[in-house]
Input
Amino acid sequence: AHVVTENCINCKHTDCVEVCPVDCFHEGPNFLVIDPDECIDCTLCVEECPVGAIFPELDVPAGQEGFLALNAELAREWPVLARKIPAMEDAARWDGAPDKLPLLKR
Ligand code: SF4
Ligand code: F3S
Output
């Protein structure tokens, strides 16, 4: 499966959802996740994310391995998002900001 990682937090551009052929993105207050049971590894979303937050599960950056379990867990709790919506306010400011995980809202 593919995995949404830390740099999505507080950005949530949602360009990714537009290209997903199986609508496996789920939306929380300030983050999106991919349902690993639905993702077919088409890879289309990777290039769409303006902040480079999506990786194949075997290529998740060091230190962000916890996002695999987090995507699986939150995909069960959050609703599907299948259409692009406006990015979060201040998305540009949060791109690349360190240590965003504690800011994740559930
Ligand atoms: Fe959807 Fe393809 Fe991205 Fe998986 S890799 S989340 S199927 S767009
Ligand atoms: Fe997040 Fe990038 Fe999608 S910021 S919502 S993974 S386009």
